[in-house]
Design brief:
Blueprint: H1 5-20, H2 23-41, H3 54-77, H4 80-86, H5 90-95, H6 100-134, H7 139-166, H8 170-199, H9 205-212, H10 216-227, E1 232-235, E2 238-241, H11 248-274
Antiparallel strand pairs: 1-2
Length: 276
């Protein structure tokens, strides 16, 4: 990727707009608050109120993040093109010397940074307290969880860009992103549980794993499970062992594909829709 001056200017503008709106500060405080609550009160069902061990904390935070981060990302980017149309600034950008790549990449980078800041800061500030209680040995696992969470947000931001380019009207775009959130966080796994029940265990773990990587939420969940040394995933009441090829390297490749492919399609759809 070539970081031209126009691309950097577009990214800085997007980040500056989000910082001015206090969006970043509010989301950072929410992440920090939820992390502290989950880490301290997460074991209340067992009659104990104290900071849990790091593995239990990461597992609990993962359960929160799979719902919270995707909806933030989808709503953040879902109306990005519609907003420019409503402000009547899209035509100005299209008439300026800035290229489509610089326009889309600059906006994406600016929003990705504004999303990464609350995820990293919001998790890491209370995380320092957890690491102080759990010991420095818990640091790599927690940092990996934060990194995975950041990429979960970027994956859904990329998906939201594609929605924003394809659906020009803001209300329809936001409605569709909410549907995607339901699909990826709830409906997809319910469908997989249904497949497991119907096939009565006939479906091989390899095929089931391939179905899992079609959902970025499941990719994120598996990465965090692998981080805490858990090699099976629980869907509904079923526990499914992960095959040996389902390792971090494969899953990181899947992560990047979930980021690159929607952006790549967005680029060509935008050019066809607005420049021809």
């Amino acid at each position: 990727m070539v970081f031209t001056d126009a691309l950097k200017a577009m990214a800085v503008k997007e980040l500056s707009d989000k910082l001015k709106s206090k969006w970043v500060i509010v989301i950072t405080l929410l992440f920090a608050l939820f992390t502290l609550i989950i880490a301290y009160f997460g074991s209340v069902s067992s009659g104990v109120v104290s900071f849990m061990n790091m593995s239990a904390t990461i597992a609990s935070l993962t359960s929160l993040a799979v719902y919270f981060i995707p909806i933030l990302s989808l709503t953040l980017g879902g109306g990005i093109i519609a907003d420019e149309r409503d402000r009547q600034t899209l035509d100005l950008y299209l008439a300026s010397p800035i290229s489509v790549f610089e326009f889309l990449a600059g906006k994406f980078l600016g929003l990705a940074v504004s999303l990464a800041i609350p995820i990293v800061v919001g998790f890491c500030l209370p995380g320092l307290m957890l690491i102080f209680k759990a010991g420095s040995g818990a640091l790599p696992g927690f940092l990996m969880f934060v990194l995975n969470s950041m990429f979960l947000g970027i994956m859904f931001l990329s998906i939201s860009f594609l929605v924003s380019v394809v659906i020009a009207e803001r209300s329809k775009s936001i409605a569709f992103t909410v549907f995607l959130w339901l699909l990826f966080t709830i409906l997809y796994d319910l469908a997989l549980v249904g497949v497991l029940i119907v096939t009565k265990g006939v479906l091989s773990p390899k095929i089931f794993s391939l179905l899992l990587v079609l959902n970025p939420v499941d990719v994120y969940r598996i990465l965090n499970f692998l981080t805490i040394g858990q090699y099976s995933i629980i869907l509904g009441l079923a526990s499914v062992d992960l095959p040996g090829f389902m390792n971090r390297y494969i899953l990181w490749v899947v992560n990047f594909l979930w980021i690159i492919i929607p952006l790549w399609i967005s680029y060509f759809v935008f050019k066809k829709k607005y420049l021809t």
